[in-house]
Design a protein that fits this description.
Blueprint: E1 4-10, H1 17-26, E2 36-40, H2 50-55, E3 58-62, H3 71-81, E4 85-89, H4 96-100, E5 108-118, H5 122-128, H6 130-138, E6 142-146, H7 154-164, E7 169-172, E8 196-197, H8 203-212, H9 214-217, E9 221-229, E10 238-246, E11 253-257, E12 259-261, E13 273-285, E14 290-302, E15 310-311
Parallel strand pairs: 1-4, 1-5, 2-3, 2-4, 5-6, 6-7, 8-9, 10-15, 12-14
Antiparallel strand pairs: 9-10, 9-13, 10-11, 10-12, 13-14
Length: about 325
């Protein structure tokens, strides 16, 4: 039997989730009469017209408590409606990862996670609920910032999300739903230099830019300070020179860096600080779950650690 695709739309209250789902259900891709179940986990100012929905074979179920998303409860809803697809308007204060990475109803299969963010309140939420916002971004595939203006620091918005989940796609819309193209920010170092020298305090920005901007770095040499990490079962002759980065708060510090190949890896020690000069290539790496920057060392030199061990992304 075919699996039932589940589309999870998450974000905080009044971020535009209801309007987004309504628009999707009216689009040519979904307005085909197939039976659709919408699970409503919170109610804001925007509402669904249940009578109108039912005319299009779309049915609404309200989920009052997070526990009501248990697989057994979802199985009951599946048997009641026998949907061909499911949309979940998720409560942004609930643990989305617990739902999206855990079991659902027997035939339900997660298809996509989309996060809606109100650009006009993003910085306020970021200041007061940074950890909760980071959790939302962690496993989403697409973040749509709506109600944006070109006066907002949209590059900062993007960096904040990519620092938590570098695979995510970010889109920006104004208050009329028109897309805003923010392009790519020019990094604060000289891309024409050989090698491109990455200042200690800009390692985080370079890490994000290198993930996104193959055209800027492929085949070029870079130089930066990094701390040696040699994971267990890593390929012979490879290590990761990187830095500790704070993506959210002090409790959310993680090590970031790229795979680096060197014939001198066996002479290195864990947590040793190096000045690394290397050529950047883009290759498939299992640890990246796809293609990404791979470094080929030209020169490795022991060095003193930078003044600040932990890097930021903004």
């Amino acid at each position: 039997m075919l699996e039932v695709p589940v589309y999870v739309i998450t974000g905080f209250l009044e971020s535009g989730k209801t309007s987004f789902i309504r628009d999707v259900l009216q689009s040519p891709d979904f307005a085909d009469g197939e039976k659709t179940l919408v699970l409503l986990c919170e109610e804001g100012e925007e509402e669904y017209d249940e009578h109108e929905l039912s005319r299009h074979n779309i049915y609404l179920e309200r989920i009052e408590k997070e526990e009501d998303l248990a697989p057994s409860s979802l199985e009951v809803l599946h048997r009641r409606h026998k949907p061909k697809r499911v949309f979940v308007e998720f409560n942004g204060t609930w643990d989305s990862m617990k739902f999206t990475t855990g079991p659902m109803a027997k035939r339900w299969e997660l298809a996509q996670i989309i996060t809606l963010v109100d650009g006009s309140t993003f910085e306020i939420y970021l200041q007061n609920m940074r950890q909760m916002m980071s959790n939302i971004f962690m496993d989403t595939e697409l973040v749509i910032f709506n109600r944006c203006t070109t006066q907002m620091d949209l590059q900062m918005f993007r960096r904040t999300v990519k620092a938590v989940n570098n695979q995510v796609v970010c889109a920006f819309e104004d208050d009329k739903g028109q897309q805003i193209d923010i392009g790519k920010a020019q990094p604060p170092f000289d891309l024409s230099a050989d090698p491109i020298v990455i200042p200690d305090e800009e390692f985080g920005l370079w890490y994000l830019d290198a993930m996104d901007s193959r055209e800027r770095y492929e085949g070029k040499n870079v130089r930066f300070k990094g701390k040696v990490m040699i994971p267990r079962k890593f390929p012979q002759g490879a290590f990761i020179p990187g830095r500790n980065a704070m993506t959210c708060c002090v409790n959310d510090i993680r090590f970031i860096g790229f795979v680096c190949h060197s014939k001198y890896t066996d002479r290195l020690t864990q947590k040793q600080w190096l000045e690394v000069t290397a050529q950047v290539r883009y290759e498939f790496v299992p640890e990246y779950n796809g293609e990404g920057p791979v470094l080929y060392a030209r020169h490795l030199k022991s060095t003193e650690p930078p003044a600040e061990d932990v890097v930021l992304f903004n």
